């Protein structure tokens, strides 16, 4: 509670993140402010996003760079979706999950970058409380879905390599849809739970977030009301939703490696493991950037450096996924070529 008739300015410090899922839960852009005055509860429904830099000369450069990265991400992932949907040879479980991953990556980057670009052009740093709630909710949803889908794709590769004769029976269309639906239901419910806990909090006037999007853990740190339940829920959910997917991925690949070791043919080993190359690259990028953000946050107290580092998991990872799956996969590369040939009119 603030002093009577007084207004307190609060600044948010960057907090470390342990994994992208953690980042999802830690990502909340808002500046909802409130204070008590003469026994009345007055609210200012606005936050202030400080962005990556306050230097006016850097703003045009930042706008150009992030707009280019955003367009490349959306176009690349959209081409993956179109190539898979238009080529009957790619109507398999592995590519069904890949098309879902591409869709989630488009939504993931669209949660943060468009608002940043708009603020850059308008030379404004404001974000409404409702906009902040929406941003943190959808950021948690799509970051969590990225993690879950990578886990499901690891399970798909495990079945394909360790149980090839039963692959078609096990990974039938019904099971694939159920797996994706379960992922959506779990992460939507968890994200909604955090939002419902957060809306009961009050915040100080003039809350500044040293980031280009909102992070939930930072907002909790400047809340004027008690956040014990919020913090406990945040850490428990983050631990569980990071541990289970990562454990599933590690278990799947341990079984894959064990199965490959029992193969006598070197060519068979290479062919089987080559189907996992793109997925392993995507997993390494996803968890590697998250670990990098965590380590950088642990060794530096500079909010601008931490914000710059977070660009890796919020922008770079969704942008690179289409290149990973197209350049390292002959089937996708061929489907993209046929799609572009049909789209390009004959001269």
TrEMBL record:
Principal location: membrane
Gene3D superfamilies noted in UniProt: Rhodopsin 7-helix transmembrane proteins (1.20.1070.10)
Entry keyword set: G-protein coupled receptor, Membrane, Receptor, Transducer, Transmembrane, Transmembrane helix
Source species, domain of life: Eukaryota
Membrane topology term: Multi-pass membrane protein
InterPro entries with a match to the protein in the record: GPCR_Rhodpsn, GPCR_Rhodpsn_7TM, Olfact_rcpt
A Pfam entry, by short name: 7tm_4
Transmembrane segments: 61-83, 95-116, 136-155, 175-197, 232-253
Keyword Translocase on entry: no
Keyword field contains Transmembrane helix: yes
Domain G-protein coupled receptors family 1 profile: 76-325
Cellular localization per UniProt: Membrane
Protein purpose: Putative odorant or sperm cell receptor.
Name of the protein: Olfactory receptor 7D4-like
Annotated organism of origin: Equus przewalskii
